[in-house]
Design brief:
The chain has 209 residues and is an alpha/beta fold. It has one domain: TIM Barrel (Alpha-Beta Barrel), CATH 3.20.20. The protein has 7 helices and 9 strands. The chain has a 6-stranded mixed β-sheet with strand order 2-3-6-7-8-9, covered by helices on one side. Helix 1 packs parallel to helix 3. The radius of gyration is 17 Å and the shape is globular. It starts with a strand and ends in a 6-residue tail after the last helix.
């Protein structure tokens, strides 16, 4: 059962330029995640998040974001998806990510979303508006085999749906690519899987891996 909580702050500054995606700010609209990926590092004890599968909804997130983004003197890329998936199933109902993207579009900040879900296609028009500045979407895809993805990422859409979403985003002019991680020894580290992933990414127009 999801729990509603109040966020003290929402946007956190990245102290040093983030080397992969150039993030200036990070934010998480929920705590916990429903995708249940077996390799998820956000469940590590170092983050001190108990019951990570229990979703906590930051009910004042959009109010906080509106206030905090207005106060930022330096515009920079806002990252979504560092600690959980902004498009996990509960987002379909609560629409915090959708609301946040609308605020970001109005403020003309760039954004980079990391997800495993094709639910992001619901918000493609908002992303296109943000893309007047810059918008990018990275899909975490660890295996070319849908049956394997069901086992290691049981709550997430299968890999083929993610590749289809990349195709739709790139055809809409939004930069999209693959974060091929983690590589799990004896599970998805074989050459055949990696070659298939690369070829499938190329086939749908992914801009990077």
């Amino acid at each position: 059962m999801p729990v509603e909580i109040l966020a003290k702050t929402l946007l956190t500054s990245v102290k040093q330029p983030e080397p992969w995606f150039g993030l200036k700010y990070n934010m998480n609209l929920y705590r916990g995640c429903q995708h249940q990926c077996i390799y998820c590092d956000s469940r590590s004890e170092c983050y001190q998040i108990e019951n990570f599968s229990e979703i906590q909804i930051k009910i004042n997130a959009l109010e906080k974001l509106s206030d905090e983004i207005r106060r930022k003197r330096v515009k920079g890329t806002i990252g979504l998806g560092s600690m959980n998936d902004p498009y996990m199933p509960i987002e379909k109902e609560r629409k915090l990510t959708q609301g946040a993207l609308q605020i970001i579009a109005k403020a003309k900040f760039p954004v980079h979303v990391i997800t495993k879900s094709d639910l992001i296609l619901r918000d493609i028009e908002i992303l296109k508006a943000i893309n007047q500045v810059y918008a990018a979407v990275s899909f975490t895809i660890t295996t070319a085999d849908d049956e394997l993805s069901k086992k290691i990422e049981p709550g997430a859409p299968v890999s083929s749906r993610r590749f289809a979403a990349i195709k739709m985003l790139t055809e809409s002019g939004i930069t999209s690519g693959v974060t091929m991680m983690p590589i799990l020894p004896y599970i998805n580290d074989d050459e055949e899987n990696i070659r298939r992933l690369i070829n499938m990414a190329a086939d749908v127009g992914a801009k990077y891996i």
